[in-house]
Amino acid sequence: MSTPPRARAERRRDTEHRLGHDIDVWVASASPDGAPHLVPLSFDWDGEALLVATPAASPTGRNLAATGTAQLALGHTRDVAMIEGHVEVLAIDALAPDLGDRFAARSGFDPRSLTTRYCWFRITPHRIRAWREENELTGRELMRDGRWLV
Residue 36 belongs to what domain range? Predict the structure, then answer.
């Protein structure tokens, strides 16, 4: 027997908790000609955007820089938050040191110390959907056009 569907306000709280406490996120991107790419990356959430880092020359780095968009997934298939966002690319030394320190502390990974050229990618959500089971498909959209709906 499945549990009753959560109210949208509860789904938002759960999603914000996950953003504030999870460490890794699945990042889906596509090349300009449409070739898909999917990787897990560590992230930090500042209340407005997710910050990830990856090598500038990697497929993900190239795709995010070229298209300026990404789709992210937090959680697992029976408790997922899907996030579509706009991407801002920042040189590794362009980020304020305290934000880089915060990312490193949260993720246990500091791309600033590597010899491979990394970039920061700041992903600002414009759409968020969250659901657990089929009974939560209705009302799964929590954010549209960058504004929370609940």
Answer: 8-140
